[in-house]
Specification:
heterodimer, A: 419 residues, alpha+beta, 2 domains, two-stranded antiparallel ribbon, 53% helix, elongated, B: alpha/beta, five-stranded parallel sheet, four-stranded antiparallel sheet, 9 helices, 21% strand
């Protein structure tokens, strides 16, 4: 269509303003798509925190609370569960594996988690990915620790180094178990889950550092050193929670009911997928707010385009009169102006996509290393295409405003411009 | 058309025009006729209604009443789109100033009417050469044959050069009617005559009817026919 090539040439002629407009549209489109991508990636990364686990069991509180402390290491358990109850369900005929979790201590702001070797065998994230060691191996001795990737990187720890566990979850703690240091036996590869921020020690290790403690305080005058502690019975009396893998998924609800109805101790079993969804729904307000903000940024970009086009319209009345004199119809004039905004939003979207992918390529390693968030560089999703479509449709709709004004001008002015 | 009788390019009868119902009439022409191939000088001060008359002849506006026939087409009966088509096919325009589209090259400016008219494209390329070479030929006739001039940005051309490019644009595809609205008012007086002679020459070559509108009495003598807007327009008011 000849009129569209005119529109393009006219845009080219105004390179500078058009370039600025393009940049603002491109940036806003890149922001919109970037936020959308971060949102979907963090959602899937969030959903990937734990997988392959059929049930999470803890003391009775709430599903989200249990999920938060057992999987995300956020907050604290309201109560412990007894070792006996754990043993009872670990030996259940429908249960394939269990992972005990014992929380309550920390190391320089990172949570310390007591667990068993099964953790490294059975824990899965992001579908079916197992935990893998970057260096070393799982703990074998009581005073050995396995570090999450972030803990090792941030604190600069290496294999064989000794670390001291502190009581409580704060960053600074006055109650340090400094008489019983742990040796780093292994460092895990990054997972993008809270595992990266966890120090793992054996359950027996948790018991050992607390042998001379009662009720969360060191008993005055009683000091049992590391060697002597090993002589004691280090079987835990209680743990914080445990993860369950079942032999068959079909049994999930049945085992869940059995645990929830357990008479000897009030227990709660939750389905991690359901709790994850509930937790995500809580955060969806913020997520939507973010999306609305980037949508508004696009609106501002397009409004900028409208302003520039309307401001330039008066100067272009002469041009329209010339076009009218050589036979252009008022509809051609409308198409010329609206076509420019279509071209601008198309070019802006294309440039925005390019910016998005360039940025993704640049920041991907950083985000993966820093936040453990894996950003995939895929073709745009259907949702993103719809967003792009909406941006361009709005571009055309917005272009109709100056287009219609130009149409009115060209009808009224004809070929005589009285400027 | 009867032999011996000069067929009319333009016939106007009881033409009336007002911008909106209720507003005063700006044009009232009982009778006006221009023969084909005629070179007519229309003299009128600004406000005499000449621009309005041109916009009616070009079909940009439709008359409020009366008849206006151009090349035997009853413009008063055609729709807006039909009039736009008619203008694209049959009328070439040269304005007073700022005739060119700044973002198009010289050649693109000259061939612009062909984008809107298949008929003019056909006529321009009838001799077997391309639109661009036809544009170059016209420019060369108007003493614009240097390659350097043709490749210059239109905004860097002098006013006289711009008017020549505009004239080449009006002439491309040999429209039957050429309307020039004060095309010389920005030119120096010695350039004016030169320009008008070029215009005559080109119109004679294509057999086009020339309507030359100006307030400049000095130019009147160059034309075989002339008419004053005051005599044509009986409203006594301009627009």
């Amino acid at each position: 269509m000849p009129i569209l090539s005119l529109a393009l040439k006219s845009l080219l002629n105004r390179r500078f303003t058009v370039g600025l407009m393009l940049i603002s549209i491109a940036l806003s489109v890149a922001l919109l798509l970037g936020v959308e991508r971060l949102r979907t990636e963090s959602r899937s990364s969030f959903a990937n925190t734990i997988s392959g686990t059929d049930l999470v069991v803890g003391a009775r509180s709430g599903a989200i609370n249990l999920l938060l402390y057992s999987v995300f290491r956020i907050g604290d358990a309201t109560n412990n569960i007894s070792w006996k109850s754990y043993q009872a369900f670990a030996a259940h005929r429908l249960v394939e594996w269990t992972i005990p979790i014992s929380l309550g201590d920390s190391h320089r702001g990172y949570r310390v988690m007591g667990t068993s070797g099964d953790y490294f065998r059975h824990y899965r994230y992001a579908g079916t990915r197992p935990l893998a060691f970057r260096q070393g191996q799982a703990f074998e001795q009581v005073y050995e620790a396995v570090l999450g990737a972030e803990v090792a990187d941030k604190l600069g720890y290496r294999l064989g180094q000794e670390i001291v566990v502190a009581h409580g979850a704060g960053k600074t703690s006055f109650n340090r178990h400094d008489d019983k240091p742990f040796t780093v036996s292994g460092i895990l590869k990054p997972t993008g889950t809270p595992v990266d921020r966890t120090v793992h020690i054996p359950l027996a290790g948790i018991e050992a550092i607390h042998v001379d403690w009662v009720q969360g305080r060191q008993v005055p005058g009683v000091r049992i050193d590391a060697e002597a502690a090993l002589e004691k019975d280090l079987t835990p009396k209680a743990i914080t929670a445990f993860l369950v893998g079942l032999k068959s998924k079909i049994a999930t609800f049945r085992v869940q009911r059995e645990i929830n109805d357990y008479r000897r101790e009030p227990l709660q079993a939750i389905l991690p997928g359901v709790a994850l969804q509930q937790l995500w729904d809580l955060m969806s307000v913020a997520e939507n707010a973010l999306l609305i903000i980037s949508g508004l940024v696009v609106a501002v970009g397009l409004a900028g385009m409208l302003t520039v086009m309307l401001a330039g319209l008066n100067e272009r009345r002469r041009e329209m009169a010339i076009l009218r004199s050589v036979g252009a119809r008022p509809l051609h004039i409308l198409t010329l102006i609206t076509g420019e905004s279509l071209a601008l939003s198309l070019l802006g979207s294309g440039l925005g996509l390019f910016l998005l992918y360039a940025t993704l390529l640049l920041v991907r390693p950083v985000i993966e290393a820093r936040f453990g968030l894996h950003l995939s560089i895929d073709l745009p999703s259907l949702r993103e295409y719809i967003m792009l479509g909406l941006v361009n449709a709005s571009g055309v709709l917005i272009g109709l405003i100056p287009g219609y004004r130009a149409y009115r001008y060209s009808l009224a002015d004809g070929m005589n411009i009285r400027i | 058309m009867p032999a011996g009788d000069t067929p009319a390019a333009i016939q106007i009868r009881d033409l009336r025009f007002r911008w909106r119902p209720g507003l005063a009439e700006v044009l009232a022409i009982p009778r006006f006729q221009v023969a084909r191939g005629e070179h007519l000088f229309i003299r009128g001060a600004s406000g005499s209604g000449k621009s309005t008359l041109l916009s009616l002849l070009a079909g940009v506006n439709a008359p409020s009443a009366g008849e206006i026939r151009v090349l035997d087409q009853p413009l008063h009966r055609l729709s807006g789109v039909q009039r736009d088509h008619f203008r694209a096919d049959h009328i070439g325009f040269v304005f007073q100033l700022f005739n060119l589209i700044p973002y198009l090259s010289v050649l693109e400016n000259v061939t612009l009417p062909c984008r809107f008219s298949k008929l003019r494209t056909r006529r321009a390329t009838a001799a077997g050469h391309s639109l661009d070479s036809e544009a170059r030929r016209l420019l060369a006739h108007l003493e614009m044959n240097s390659d350097e001039l043709i490749h210059r940005r239109v905004t860097e051309l002098s006013v006289g050069q711009q008017q020549r490019v505009a004239t080449a644009r009006a002439l491309i595809g040999a429209p039957e009617i050429l309307i020039a609205d004060e095309p010389t008012s920005a030119l120096d007086s010695d350039l004016r005559e030169n320009f008008i002679r070029l215009l005559f020459q080109e119109c004679a070559a294509t057999g086009s009817t020339l309507l030359f509108v100006s307030h400049d009495r000095q130019l009147e003598g160059l034309f075989g026919h002339h008419v004053a807007m005051d005599e044509l327009n009986r409203t006594g008011r301009g627009g």
